[in-house]
# Entry
Amino acid sequence: MRVGIGFDAHRFARGRRLVLGGVEIPHPVGLAGHSDADVLLHAICDAILGALALGDIGAHFPDRDPALRGISSAELLRRTARLARDRGWRVANVDATVILEEPKIGPHVPAMRAAIARALGCGEEAVGVKATTTEGMGFCGRGEGIAAAAVAALAEAPSADSPGPERRGA
Ligand code: MG
# Structure
């Protein structure tokens, strides 16, 4: 097994859609960012990259790359899961906490889990999404933005052409 941790934060911005966990949520403001600014999916990408010891999301998907401007973070998550598969790992489970005061995401969590599972190629039962406030403290508490933290566990995914991580090429 491998485990990784990820964290991200984005500030609110007018004139932007709010996309969280691959789901567009009706809200007067969205999040600023080069991509769709899906802070939850970015934290999950970093958790997977961390488990692979492959650096961070900025190294793989730089925010100066014009080709990635406005890209769906679900696509970034799909590409990240492919990096794991190509190295002989599959995502065993992910768990994440979104830190925000508003909006309430509870009603959207089932759709988020489904979107994340689709991008990862795993079952929804392997995807946890939770939310918390910070009781008014800090930048999330003041409603300046949204943060997310995630962990990912990867398991070996042996196949005919890929005998599994570390043993490859032995
Ligand atoms: Mg980000």
Notes: The first helix runs from residue 39 to 51. The two ends are 19 Å apart (CA to CA). The chain has one domain: 2-156. The beta strands are 2-13, 19-20, 23-24, 30-31, 89-99, 127-132, 145-156.
